[in-house]
Design a protein that fits this description.
CATH architecture: 3-Layer(aba) Sandwich
Distance between the termini: 12 Å
Shape: globular
CATH topology: Carbamate kinase
Number of strands: 8
CATH superfamily: Acetylglutamate kinase-like
CATH class: Alpha Beta
Number of domains: 1
Length: 262
């Protein structure tokens, strides 16, 4: 039994494919469902930090860019435009539930020095004390290749370490971790619980394309390993079913639960 009903401090990561439609417009319907679930958790007294992708994807259509033709500078510009659109959607929808949000754009160097890390931790603690929902993304406009998190799975794991979260929930476009690619093999089986990330699991995922964002399922397992450094458990859920978050926190066995400190 997972006993996640006692979970209090939660980091939730949502990827681009869940937030932005194929034409580059904001997927308001999806965001509305996530906001409703997170607001419910807030009302129950839980502390939630949201790590949200979607900025570059949302900025593409506004600037008439094509992703495969974009330079790094154009991606950074698209991110700054799209971040405004994503935050506007979150702000408006959370206001309907009487919740306040904040935008937090993080660069990797901010957690590479003890003094900066301590300050960032204090900021998050104050957000949570004030019942504010921090919405976190990487500060793409200032990114240099050597200072990037590479993907928001990794960023969400670092945030989990920073605030000593009880649980990291990573939403993706499949039901969890499978023994092989479910898009290619009809007999692929969901792995409900993982206590060790073995070579066998990694080999089964090699070459798998489990989602449309920057990271694949391997990056989510790496994130789980990082999160485990602060004893944070990880849960990988289907992003198309926001209600699964509530189901999981009511001790239902959905998705893939990763407890490497068991």
């Amino acid at each position: 039994m997972r006993y996640l009903s006692k979970t209090n401090r939660i980091v939730i990561k949502i990827g681009t494919s869940s937030l932005v439609c194929a034409d580059g417009t904001i997927n308001t319907a999806n965001i509305k469902e996530y906001v409703a679930v997170i607001s419910k958790l807030q009302n129950e007294g839980k502390e939630v930090v949201l790590v949200s992708s979607g900025a570059i994807g949302a900025g593409l259509s506004k600037l008439c860019y094509k992703r495969h033709e974009m330079s790094n500078i154009e991606k950074q510009v698209a991110a700054t435009v799209g971040q405004c659109l994503v935050m506007r959607a979150y702000t408006n929808l959370f206001e309907e539930h009487n919740h306040i949000v904040s935008q937090v754009l993080i660069s990797k160097y901010m957690i590479d020095a003890e003094k900066r890390t301590e300050n960032l931790k204090n900021v998050f603690e104050t957000f949570l004390q004030k019942k504010v929902v921090p919405i976190v993304n990487e500060n793409d406009a200032l990114m240099l290749h050597e200072l990037e998190f590479k993907n928001n799975d990794t960023l969400s794991a670092y945030i989990s370490n920073l605030i000593h979260a009880d649980l990291l929930i990573i939403l993706t476009d499949v039901d969890g971790v499978f023994d092989k690619n479910p898009n290619q093999y009809s007999d692929a089986k969901l792995i409900s619980n993982i206590t060790e990330i073995t070579d066998e699991i990694k080999i089964g995922l090699c070459g798998a394309s489990h989602n449309f964002g920057v990271g694949g399922m391997i990056t989510k397992l790496v994130a789980a390993e990082i999160a485990a450094k602060s004893n944070t458990k990880t849960l990988i859920l289907n992003s198309n079913k926001a209600q699964l978050i509530c189901d999981a926190l009511q001790n239902e066995e959905v998705g893939t639960y990763i407890n490497l400190n068991n």
